[in-house]
Write a structure and sequence with these properties.
Largest sheet: 4 strands, antiparallel
Radius of gyration: 28 Å
Number of helices: 11
Number of strands: 21
CATH topology of the largest domain: Adenine-n6-DNA-methyltransferase TaqI, Chain A, domain 2
Helix content: 25-40%
Strand content: 15-25%
CATH superfamily of the largest domain: DNA methylase specificity domains
Number of domains: 2
CATH architecture of the largest domain: Alpha-Beta Complex
Mean pLDDT: 89
Shape: elongated
CATH class of the largest domain: Alpha Beta
């Protein structure tokens, strides 16, 4: 049972509710609906799972309903569904239609004294979510239940005030959500622009007036006439090297280890402060060593889009090795600039090509011979350095723009949250008059 069910202390978010407002446990004014759908209803009605609800906004993320699960509940229009699994995700849905929901969603039915839309905003307010989350049970998959949810306070002004608050929040949050959506679209455009600039630079060069030649390679197309196009093996100091396999029992101390997850970085550089450690003998450190300028990309992954992501090791601080799902490439000095090659392998043209070469059995894998035979563009070395420098500058410029937009989204999100909490707890005085 909830702590607040046997305590006179209210959670902080509900402690300043106006004296004129009613109060009490949620379960006094909201019922729990547990009716299971009939087989006909399961087949005919739209189905909603907790994964279909957007965090904090309550918007549905799907257009086409999926088949209903066996463990499902019937809901009606104006029921409010609350996600009991990992409630910190703040997945709450105000139903405007009849349907069937996942067993992970608690179906709440407001009494005549509670406006459903007002109830939605109370349940999705940060204070309510934080309080529920603090009382969950289960370490790996924390859950709430009706005892926890039902024994939370429900601020309850008059019905007219509830409707006024709900309408106010509908209008305000719609505007804020519209601004956030535009800024997220801007982030997508910045990512596309970044990828397009890098791809153009490493496959076509920086001089738009340079004479071009046809490579005869469909997926690569034309390149500057003075560039070479050769198999990857021709620009490497040694054959590509797969990493080492280590059991979980060997982790925790020893050499730094570059893992698959350390490669998925927007700056295409290894962050040594985030690496695990693994016990290695001298032979393993020698055979699987990491040196400045080494390039790593994913050769096998459970997901197709997880392969062929490339990063570069720079300023290696100490003994470092790499794991078996990664491939190490070492460039021939004065033949291939490592940073240029890292941008080349990570650009859209090459990622698409590498993905097309992958084969899938239990895991999606790129065979070593396919990698060695991959044709790469080879500008003169000084031009490679210039292109890599340009790519670095563009990456930094766009990252700064992204950081600015993300900070703006964070401020809007915080404002949205504060607005909801203030409104449903009576801190917006202009909404409280009856």
């Amino acid at each position: 049972m909830s702590y607040f069910a046997h305590s006179s202390e209210l959670p902080e978010w509900a402690a300043q509710v106006p004296d004129a407002w009613g109060s009490g446990w949620l379960k006094w004014s909201v019922g729990l609906s547990t009716r299971r759908p009939t087989e006909e209803e399961r087949e005919a009605l739209p189905y909603i799972s907790n994964e279909d609800i957007e965090s904090w906004t309550g918007k549905l993320l799907v257009e086409e309903p999926k088949p209903a699960e066996a463990d499902s509940r019937k809901f009606w229009a104006n029921d409010v569904l609350f996600n009991k699994l990992r409630p910190y995700l703040a997945k709450v849905f105000h139903a405007t239609f009849e349907g069937v929901s996942s067993g992970e969603l608690i179906c709440l039915r407001p009494s005549q004294a509670v406006d459903p839309r007002f109830l939605f905003y109370v349940l999705v307010s940060k204070g309510f979510i934080d309080t529920i989350n603090a009382e969950t049970f289960g370490a790996k998959m924390p859950r709430a239940d009706w005892e926890i949810v039902g024994h939370q306070p429900l601020p309850l002004p008059t019905f007219d005030t509830q409707q006024r608050i709900a309408q106010f929040l509908d209008e305000k949050t719609a505007r804020i959500d519209g601004l956030i959506e535009k800024k997220r679209a801007l982030l997508d455009r910045l990512a596309e622009k970044h990828q397009a600039l890098i791809t153009l630079a490493v496959t076509k060069g920086l001089n738009p007036d340079a004479p071009m030649k046809n490579t005869g390679i469909d997926w690569l197309g034309d390149v500057p006439a003075h560039w070479e196009v050769v198999p990857l093996r021709r620009v490497l100091k040694a054959p590509l090297r797969n990493g080492l396999f280590k059991r979980k029992s060997e982790f925790g101390e020893g050499a730094l280890l570059i893992n698959v997850f350390d490669v998925y970085r927007p700056d295409l550089k290894i962050d040594y402060s985030k690496l695990d450690r693994v016990r290695c003998d001298e032979r393993e450190i020698d055979n699987y060593s990491v040196a400045d300028g080494d390039i790593f990309f994913v050769r096998s992954s459970l997901k197709m889009q997880g392969i062929a992501v490339a990063v570069i090791a720079q300023d290696v601080p100490e003994d470092t090795v790499f794991e078996c799902h990664l491939v190490r490439a070492r460039c021939r000095q004065e033949r291939m600039c490592p940073r240029f090659l890292s941008f080349l392998l990570a650009c859209a043209t090459y990622r698409d090509r590498l993905i097309s070469l992958a084969k899938t059995t239990t895991m999606t894998t790129i065979e070593q011979e396919s990698l060695h035979s991959l044709h790469v563009t080879v500008p003169p070395f000084k031009e490679q350095v210039s292109i890599a420098r340009f790519a670095e500058q563009e990456m930094e410029r766009i990252e700064n723009l992204v950081a600015h937009v993300e900070a703006s989204i964070h401020r809007l999100t915080e404002y949205r949250s504060a607005l909801i909490t203030a409104a449903v707890t009576g801190q917006r005085g202009e909404l409280n008059g009856d």
